[in-house]
Structure formats: C-alpha cells, structure tokens
Amino acid sequence: MEGLWPWVLILVCLPGLILGAPSASHCTGACGTRFSEDLTPEETQTSWDKDIPAINQGLIPEESPESSFLLEGDILRPSPFRLFSAASSKWPKNGGVVEVPFLLSGKYDKPSRQVILEAFAEFERSTCIRFVAYNGQRDFISIIPMSGCFSSIGRSGGMQVVSLGPSCLQRGPGIVLHELMHVLGFWHEHSRADRDRYIRVNWNEILPGFEMNFIKSRSSNMLVPYDYSSVMHYGRLAFSRRGLPTITPLWATSVHIGQRWNLSSSDIARVLRFYDCSPSGHEPSGKEKKQPKNHFKCQNIKTSFSTLLSSIQQCSKS
C-alpha cells in the first residue's frame, strides 16, 4: 500500500501539470434495469452491496480516512492545479455529438476489454456520448487497471486517470458505466441535495471517519427526479461498520438500490439534459447540423466504439 501512494498522488496532480427539488421518479424500484436471471431478489441486493466502496476499502487508510485521495469512495480529489486546467467540466459538443477521447491500457486481457467496450457501446446507443480513440487531443481519459475503481468528476483537463481494476470488471459493465458517468460530470445519487426525502442515512452505522462520504451537494444529478435505480446510487451497505444498512430507502424498505447492470432511464435523461443533446447526435432543436465523421476507416484511429465493433472484422480482412 505504501508503494502505491506516490503514484496515486502523481496521477491526481498530473492533469493540472499537463495544462499548467423535483418529485421522485415514478419508478421507485429498479426501473428499466436488467436483473441477473441467476439471482433471487435477496441475492441481487447482496450482490449490489458488494460495491465500489468495498472494492476500494483497502486503498483508504482506516486510521485517517479524511486523508484519503478519494471522495465518496471513488472520486479523485480535485488537483490543486485545477484552476489552470479546463474552464468547464463538460466535454465539448460538436454538431450534437460529445466526444470523449480515451487511451486503454494494454494490460487488460480480452474479456476485460470487452466489458469496457460494452459500456462505451451502451452510452453510444442511448446518448450523444461517443468514446473515441485518443489521437493527439489535449483532453482525454486514460483507463488503467490500478487496484480500485475511481475517476475524476467531469473534464479536468489534460490526461485524467480512470482506474478500473480487475475487481471492477468481474460483474459486467455496471461499474464501468458508473465511473464513466463521473467522467461526464455526475456525482452520486445518494449525495443529492434532496436525498432526505427519499433515503435515510443511518449515521450510527457508518465507519467512524467516513461520514464525509454522505455529505449532501447540489449537483448535475438534480436535472431529473431522484432515482433509486440509478447506476450512480450506492447500495445499502456503503461504508458500513458492522454489516448493517447505512442507506435505507424511505418509499419502500424492500426496494433495490445500487444496481450495477445498466444505465437507468433517468441516467440517460440526465446525460441528454446536461449536454443538451439527443441520442441520435442531432441538436434537440431539430435543426440538422453537420456531424463529425465517426465512420470507421482502417487507416483512421479516431472512431466510435459501436462502429468499431461492427467494422473490425471487415477491416481485418482488408
């Protein structure tokens, strides 16, 4: 663990160095969420409770959690050089399409890469977000298999690290979707300013020193009603000190929270509203605008992942 900290601090600071009250969702369960056919409802919630905070727990010094490099369990603390980086946390939109350049570590094996590709493809199917291969862009994300799941909030400028360790990829693309939502500028659902109307935080059950992970904030999540089924919601046992719930839903005590299967309908809606776009990549006003070319070409590395998946076989034959 001691050997990891210097690298973590470098990665947190590197981006700056490079650049010098709405009603609740009508669905209070896991609306629009795909459940595993192999799990009972009880097993499903148990599976969801083994979530990101539990995976990252070993990275946080128990004796002084306030000194952790992570906020709310998986958000990198802003770089002290942030003022000299990107002026906006939003990724730029061009012709109705939002491109997020990425570098994917060569240390991932084929199954792990496929899980990440699935997450990219889900964003492309449902939103205007297009993850494109890095080709010299100034701002980009670097996805690497560190021992944890974490990322920054929004576009921080220059290279920004997204850690997706092996444990983050074992149950499908859900955790990848969660971290990429952070990359796009979204915070956790349980930390919304209006959360007290929908959940109860059981402060006495939180690990001592980790209460700061439940502080409320007014964020971009407020663009849509509160959603228990959001991929950005933590499970019941987040930062639990003795295996009892730290988060209790108020509308229905048996509702499932903390799903890590897919983007909920509210997750999709908040992306579209935050970036003022449509899934097709056209402007919401209906006015046709010329879109950036994303068609796959063997000689052009800059391409969206759904196009890449459908064209890679043809390219390999040419």
UniProtKB/TrEMBL annotation:
<dbReference type="GO" id="GO:0007338">
    <property type="term" value="P:single fertilization"/>
</dbReference>
<dbReference type="Pfam" id="PF01400">
    <property type="entry name" value="Astacin"/>
</dbReference>
<keyword id="KW-0862">Zinc</keyword>
<feature type="active site">
    <location>
        <position position="179"/>
    </location>
</feature>
<feature type="signal peptide">
    <location>
        <begin position="1"/>
        <end position="20"/>
    </location>
</feature>
<keyword id="KW-0963">Cytoplasm</keyword>
<keyword id="KW-0732">Signal</keyword>
<keyword id="KW-0378">Hydrolase</keyword>
<dbReference type="GO" id="GO:0004222">
    <property type="term" value="F:metalloendopeptidase activity"/>
</dbReference>
<feature type="domain" description="Peptidase M12A">
    <location>
        <begin position="85"/>
        <end position="278"/>
    </location>
</feature>
<keyword id="KW-1015">Disulfide bond</keyword>
<comment type="subunit">
    <text>Interacts (via N-terminal domain) with SPACA3; the interaction occurs during fertilization.</text>
</comment>
<dbReference type="GO" id="GO:0005886">
    <property type="term" value="C:plasma membrane"/>
</dbReference>
<keyword id="KW-1003">Cell membrane</keyword>
<keyword id="KW-0482">Metalloprotease</keyword>
<protein>
    <recommendedName>
        <fullName>Metalloendopeptidase</fullName>
        <ecNumber>3.4.24.-</ecNumber>
    </recommendedName>
</protein>
<feature type="binding site">
    <location>
        <position position="182"/>
    </location>
    <ligand>
        <name>Zn(2+)</name>
    </ligand>
</feature>
<dbReference type="InterPro" id="IPR006026">
    <property type="entry name" value="Peptidase_Metallo"/>
</dbReference>
<keyword id="KW-0968">Cytoplasmic vesicle</keyword>
<keyword id="KW-0645">Protease</keyword>
<feature type="binding site">
    <location>
        <position position="178"/>
    </location>
    <ligand>
        <name>Zn(2+)</name>
    </ligand>
</feature>
<dbReference type="GO" id="GO:0008270">
    <property type="term" value="F:zinc ion binding"/>
</dbReference>
<dbReference type="GO" id="GO:0006508">
    <property type="term" value="P:proteolysis"/>
</dbReference>
<feature type="binding site">
    <location>
        <position position="188"/>
    </location>
    <ligand>
        <name>Zn(2+)</name>
    </ligand>
</feature>
<keyword id="KW-0865">Zymogen</keyword>
<keyword id="KW-0479">Metal-binding</keyword>
<dbReference type="GO" id="GO:0060473">
    <property type="term" value="C:cortical granule"/>
</dbReference>
<dbReference type="InterPro" id="IPR001506">
    <property type="entry name" value="Peptidase_M12A"/>
</dbReference>
<keyword id="KW-0278">Fertilization</keyword>
<dbReference type="InterPro" id="IPR024079">
    <property type="entry name" value="MetalloPept_cat_dom_sf"/>
</dbReference>
<comment type="function">
    <text>Oocyte-specific oolemmal receptor involved in sperm and egg adhesion and fertilization. Plays a role in the polyspermy inhibition. Probably acts as a protease for the post-fertilization cleavage of ZP2. Cleaves the sperm-binding ZP2 at the surface of the zona pellucida after fertilization and cortical granule exocytosis, rendering the zona pellucida unable to support further sperm binding.</text>
</comment>
<keyword id="KW-0472">Membrane</keyword>
